[in-house]
Amino acid sequence: MSAVTADAGAAEVRAYVEGYLLAAYAQPRRGDAPAGAQDAAAQLVLLTPPDRPDVAAPIEAATRAAAATWLVRDLANTPSDVKDPAWFADRALRLADALGLDTTVRGPAELAEEGFGALLAVGAGSARGPRLVTVTYDPADNGVTPATDRSAPRHVVVVGKGITYDTGGLSIKPREAMVPMKTDMVGAAVALAVVLGAARARSDRRVTAVLPLAENHVGAASYRPGDVLRTWSGRTVEVANTDAEGRLVLADAVGYAVQELAPDVLVDVATLTGAASMGLGRGHGALFATDDAVADALEDAARTTGERVWRMPLVEDYAGALRSDVADLRHVPVESPGGGAITAALFLREFVGDVPWAHLDVAGPARATADRHEVVAGATGFGARLLLEALDRL
Length: 394
What we know:
By secondary structure, the chain is α/β, with parallel strands linked by helices.
């Protein structure tokens, strides 16, 4: 039992409960059903005086935020011999169906028919084919009245990189670098957790998660450095390094989201570059944005949740490094100007159009080697609470 919150206000109660639940997470062993944040919450006793104002709402909010983080951790910590694109898509479908959300799953045949050339190329080397999942929460379908008088709710689209395992493809990674690559799909897990969390919170924002899922493997059909891919948007991309696959699957998913989903705000989340973790370490995510208001909303939410971000520049002088002689774009520079996280973000920007956009490169804080405060070893779940907190600000 704890008396720490006896004199705490609602915000302090929420912070205490959320911190407790985040730190209480433990990776499930193979074959065990994962525990839930609600189960951990049931073991916490708060002693409050009888005249205290109701604290049910902050406790519920804390549990909801922690549950989103736990889901990301559970998905990311699942071994990749289990977690292929089909498994992830099925898991997303079942979780979304439980909340009555609209879900579409595209398999290899649908992806080929609709022209998702980059996603198909990345997944071609694996016997386990790619998927593209969209999950939408619409407040109008759930009887939620918008907080302000407007004809339609703001539509926030979250695109998450979902590489269920990353060998690097033909540009193969060193052995040591492959060990944590079961977590290379945390962006997709965050996007899924956000749309589910928005539904549970009955947000007045319309939220869609777009999950491009593929296994970047080595096989007879692997795509090659030097290939030219046609993305969903029609733009062609010269491949320079098959281990820079995340920006390719995001190019297809972002292009699709912009043109087909009509977002008011677009956010993508990805363990995208080693450069981001080299520059910022494991304590901060790299934030890029084309819109100051969107960047401010995410930075403000980060201060609230403690999931720290650092805004990085989209350096126009570096954009020329993405030019190709044989395609519209080259996804990795021939001669790097440095700032690898920046050139990756500039590549993604090519598919965004005029939509207000933010890119979160979480390669550093998405994984931890040891427990520290509310962060646990393994997949940390970084970004889920941040984006849920940011929804009302966007």
